[in-house]
Every structure is written in structure tokens, then in C-alpha cells.
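Check my protein:
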Amino acid sequence: MSLQMVSTVSNSSLLQPGFSLLNFDGHVFFFGQKGWPKRSCPTGVFLLDIKQNELKMKPAFFSKDSCYLPPLRYPALCTLRSDARADEYQYIIHGGKTPNNDLSDKIYFMSLVRKTSKKMTFQCIEKDLGGDVPEARYGHTINVVHSQGKSMSVLFGGRSYTPLAQRTTEKWNSVVDCLPSVFLIDFEFGCCTSYILPELQDGLSFHVSIARDDTIYILGGHSLQNNTRSPNLYKLKIDLPLGSPAVTCTILPGGVSVSSAIVTQISDTEFVLVGGYHSDNQKRLVCNTIVLEDSKIEIVESVSPEWTPDIKHCRMWFGCDMGKGSVLLGIPGANKQLIPDANYFYILRCKGAEEDKEEESITQICSQTSSEDPGDSTPFEDSEEFCFSAEANSFDVDDADTYNEDDEEDESETGYWITCCASCNIDINTWVPFYSTELNKPAMILCSSGAGHWVHAQCMDLSETMLLRLSEANVKYFCNKHVDLNKGLQTPQKVVCLKKQPMKPLRKKKTMKLSTSMKKSFLRRLFE
């Protein structure tokens, strides 16, 4: 085995744990960035280009009839072929986390529909299922099995949020193991059936699964309920006769207690198991060789590479299969790099250089969970992993299309967990819902001062009634910092002066003068 460091020339902050990589015609594409897509690449899918040990990312495109594919982290994915030896294939993508930390229960089919020397166009279709549809989850696996001329997908494991009826204020955003049900999915008829097997007692996530013909081997995995890593090796056999499918499970000896491990294929029957964790604070630096022959599996310890001091002493590590017997490993850059959230990357080659040159194509039949979310465990818990499905070769694509992240706005300024004001106390690790409309993220409102910025409604001391009124009414809102400034900048309204009508002078009443004879006559009549 050989270990070689890879430099990230640009956009290294996009290469965060939890994404996946898809292989189409020898080209590897990045999928599942941490935030929402930006203007330079609205699809959120990038060509991963490695030349002379330097890594670059270039935007990819979708056809007009494609559905929207959100950036999903920690999904389950695998390739689907018409039969086991077909050349054309498409990817199945299920579950995962959206940038809002919502969990997806949707299934997408992604395929390559057009290819030129400088542009590759994809098509994405959302599939509807009936029957026992799997709940939204992440950290699970999906595989395709072939039996008696038929093909079906098998989904197992993962984690989901605590059901609403069981949530409390203290554990509102906590996650639990999904039930250990095996889902058999028939995409031809759009139906799904779940099976409860007595051999599978505990839910597992971030495990490894390897599919071969009609058999799936499940290795390792972490159980939140027991906080253990299963030492069992499970063998799922799926028989697809003309009638109802038959699913059986057998517990085999010789398993490995590990989570977030990585599997890469080095030959038709041999695989190498790399990385992962023995426990919350102990990385697994041992490698194993897995041999599949005649419906049997054998796991033996193999020679490990000479790990660098940085890898040995890092607080966590992550990685994924690149195909062709190669694995991409990443460790946090911590304070060693000027770019925040940047990582160091290494390529571990489990085969000799001569063998690598002889192989020109890769058949990927391994499926493994994309990563462990660090928010669900201690920093040493199961690493967040990339999900590679083929070797990243050198691509003859014009560098003019390279994605430039410097042209974008800083996503941290528009996220839910920003520091919106000096008195902001919203923290992703301690936050609990305050309004009845909140679920797993705080309510925010746009301040219309200047170019506009988002603030937390709770930090602005808004009542729920006022928040609902502002969200429904088409009015501008100003945060506590800018409300006085806004009042001072407002132009006084023009006061319309009313014209006063001049008052008419009072006319003097005319008095009639009486003569002396008239006075006497009046007095005489008055006293008679």
C-alpha cells in the first residue's frame, strides 16, 4: 500500500464530510454540498478533477426535463443496471439530510443523457413508491441484487429524528436508530415491502454492505441505543422466484466491530476494508482483506500502510472508496490552514502501480454509508465519509469552466445558525424550539435595512402573534438595531395646510329711536 497527499487548489471548503461522488464514464462528480447551491453552480453537482495531485471542481448540468435534486448529505446510493453485466447504469439516491437539516424520504434516479468534450448533461427523475415506504433517514445503505433474471433494491439501517409524539423540549432534535427492517424495493412496479427478521435485533447505521448476485453482506455499524459497534457479520440472501420474494438472514462468524469503515474493490472477488472506528475515541488503523468466493466470505488482516503522524494523531478522519483499489482519506486541517473548514487529503492505493495501469474500467458493487454526522456523537465518533464510486482520473476538460467559490457570498452569513446581533444566543448545540411553528431550525425574519440581512425572531423578542402577522403581511421589518436609524432617515410626511376662511365682521344691530310721544303711549299701555 502507498499513501500520497493531494492538494486542494480551489473550493476546498466545499469538500466537507457527508457528500457523495458519482462515476459516469470514468468521470467522478461531486454531489451533496453542505449548504444550498449558489449562482455559479445552481445544480449543486460538480466534476471532480484531479490533475498532478491537484484537485479542482467544475460545474455540471441537468437537462430541462429533470426534477430538482437537492444537495443531500449522508444519503444511501448505488448503481442500478438492467442486469449484472450491463454497461449502462444509473444511480439510485435515497434519503439524506438537506441543508436545513431536514431528512429526505425521496428516491431519485440520476443518469447521464448527453456527453461532449466539455460538457456532460444529467437527467434526474424522482420515483414514487407504494406499500411499506421507508421513512426519512440517513446513514443507511442501499444495494441491488440479481436473482433468476430479476433485480431488486435492498435498503437497510440508518437514523431518523425522534417521532413528534415522543419529542421533548430537551431532546427536540435528537436522532434514533431506525427499526432493523429490511426493505425490498421493486422499481419496475413501484412497490416496496418491509421484512422483519429475527436475526436483526438492533438498528444499525454507518455500516458497510457488499452485494454479490443475490446476497448482501452487512459488516459493522453503530447502534445508538446500545452505543455499541456490532461484531456480527450478517448475510442476507434474497430469492426472487415468480411468486413472492424470500428474504433470509444468517449470522456468520468472523465479523469486525467497526463503524464508518471504507471498502474498496481490488479484484473480482477481493475487497480491502480501511479506516473507521473501534470506539468513540479510537480510530481503526488496521486494514483487512475480504474475499468472496462460492457464496462464502473470508475476512483476514492485511498489511497496513505507513500512516503519517498527522493521520495518527488527528482527532477524527473520514474518506471513501475511489475505485480501482484506491481510497481518499481526509483529516481536519484545524488551525494549520488559513482557510476555515479546510481539510488535508490523502490517496491510499491498496494495489501496485502496475496493476492500476492495467485496469481501465471499474465495476463498483460496494455500498457504504456516506458518513457519520458529528452532531449525533462525540468528535471521535464515526467519521463523516465521502462516498466515491470510481477512481478520480485526470480529465481533459477546459479549465475555463472551473467553479470559483470566491465569487459567491459567504453562506455562513445567511444560515440559520449565524450570530444575528450582539445579544444573539442561538446555538446549534443548545437550541430548542421557541415558537410552535419551529421544528429543527429557528424562525428568522429579514431586516430591510440596507441590502437586508436575516435575524432570529427570538432574538428580536417578537411574539408569535407578531411573527405570524409579519410573515403574512407585505410590510418591511427592521431589527432592533436598525429600527431607530430607519425612523431617523424617514422623510417627514408633507403636511397639507388647510386654508382658513376669513371671518365676516359682525354687523351692528340697528336700533330704532322712539319719540317722546311714542314712549308715553307705550308706558300708558303697559300700566293699563
